[in-house]
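Illustration: RNA-binding protein.
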Amino acid sequence: MDLRGKQKSFLRSQAHHLQPIFQVGKGGMNDAMIQQIGEALEKRELIKVTLLQNTDETAEEVAAALESALRCQVVQIIGKVLVVFKPSTKDKYRKISEQVRRI
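Result:
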């Protein structure tokens, strides 16, 4: 599902008030973290991931790793904060993706 401009804008507005729930630190991205991010995306659909100052990875590298591993979309990168979206496969968690589909 490719997002259009208005859909990305809506997702950015929804993510504005969210707190980052994952932090990429000195250890960088690993399989366990990618799996946890995938599980969080399944339940929430929209999350923020932040990169700590001591990480060696760039936001673009983390975005590319997440997109390829989870088939999600990085909606926005501001500094060291990524906004990540993936529609849930379960109906009961589909709140944001239903709104995005209507836009």
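Reading the tokens back as a structure: The mean pLDDT is 95.
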